[in-house]
Amino acid sequence: MFLSVFDMFKVGIGPSSSHTMGPMVAAARFLDMMRASPFEFRGLRASLHGSLAFTGVGHATDRATILGLAGFLPETYDDDKAEETLAAINESKTIVLEDLGRLRFDPRADMIFDYDHALAGHANGMILMATDAQSDVILRQVFYSVGGGFVLTEEELAQGKATDDGDPVPYPFKSAVEMLEMARASGLTIAQMKRANEVSRGCEQSLNRGTARLWQVMNDCINRGLERDGILPGGLQVRRRAKGIYDALMAERGMNLTAPHTINDWMSVYAMAVNEENAAGGQVVTAPTNGAAGVLPAVLRYYLDHVPGASEKHIEDFLLTAAAIGGLVKYNASISGAEAGCQAEVGSAAAMAAAGLCAVMGGSVEQVENAAEIALEHHLGMTCDPVKGLVQVPCIERNGLGAIKAVSAASLALRGDGKHFVPLDAVIETMRQTGHDMHEKYKETSLGGLAVNVPNC
């Protein structure tokens, strides 16, 4: 099994990897299908199902789908151009593509929210259709946005887990047990094994440039969030808090008046800065999802800015170690809130961040696995219940607490010798089972939990 670090960490836009990035990617894939088809198309249509329908407006799923059908991609997204394009589509009731021509698309009639008919494969389902001159559907494809910006067609999902058809990699582990065994046998760290796998599929320079860009985008996102204030979009009137907290923390520096636990505020403010940017539709990196995008950058920024002896040369090791853990969670369970609740998002992010921090602080492979296990274990059962379907309440603060748990988990693991009672594989399987048993109203539908017990207007 091989999932690249660039599969786990993708540069994209907020507010949701499953509900914003995924539909945009699906639409791009559908355009490629149209280009490969012998038919002549005159129109487009889209329907959203399950969680994509219930929280689609709050997550800008309709907007992302329309922009995807207009040729936009998350990694090259231009907000000003997007606004111009959406205005033109609303006015002309058409989407114009250079290679496919002018296609009828009325956002009011052709962007359908189907609340009554969930699709069988996954909670995040959508159907994209292309029509002929008589408005009859002549090309149709079901897509599922399965978390972290990953998209599968109906046929791909039916084949089972997404498989990797590339060349074999040197260290192909599918479980934590296999990962530990390979590390012991080879004498390599998790990051070194992951690096060898990545280089076998590409080149070292591309890996170095790519991981450097990932951290640059993450760190830039933190800095933007620390500088901006105001009210977040969506109607809840949630105000940005990161800037105010950061300014207060900076003012207190050197005064010798702060309590030791104030370090938690630093971790939280870094995470909240990212998730406020995400909620505003800014550029973020899935880590492993948008809804959990603040945890890992916050822990890495905490390491660089607050841990004595920290070095930027360890950034790549942090990201590679985290990606290895995230790959195990995705392969054996889920990173999708719509599939398994927030335990799959913030829980997975905390496990990844804890592993990365433990590794760069000198932890053994056994301690790294223990750090990931502790962090994920103590997110088990966490629901996904965003108020009004927006990635704001409780998501922004939840990332801050996820970062604190990740640092605590790494610290506890480093205090031990790597031997522990519950294996990481057991926690991942428990998370999968818990997600399966969890009621749908607690899985990103905004039909339960805080979403129905807090006034949202």
Secondary-structure map:
Blueprint: H1 5-8, E1 11-13, H2 17-36, E2 43-50, H3 51-54, H4 61-69, H5 79-92, E3 94-97, E4 101-104, H6 107-110, E5 111-114, E6 124-131, E7 137-147, E8 150-153, H7 154-158, H8 176-186, H9 190-201, H10 204-227, H11 242-252, H12 263-279, E9 283-285, H13 295-306, H14 315-332, H15 337-340, H16 346-360, H17 365-377, H18 395-415, H19 424-437, H20 450-453
Parallel strand pairs: 2-5
Antiparallel strand pairs: 1-9, 2-6, 3-4, 6-7, 7-8
Helix pairs in contact: 2-4, 9-14, 10-12, 11-12, 12-13, 12-18, 13-16, 13-18, 14-16, 16-17, 16-18, 17-18, 17-19
Task: Please characterize this protein's 3D structure.
With 457 residues, the protein is an alpha+beta fold. The chain folds into two domains: 142 residues, 2-Layer Sandwich (60s Ribosomal Protein L30, Chain: A), CATH 3.30.1330; 278 residues, no CATH class. 52% of the residues lie in helices and 11% in strands. The protein has 20 helices and nine strands. The strands form three sheets. A five-stranded mixed beta sheet has the order 5-2-6-7-8. A two-stranded antiparallel sheet has the order 1-9. The protein has a two-stranded antiparallel sheet with strand order 3-4. The mean pLDDT is 95.
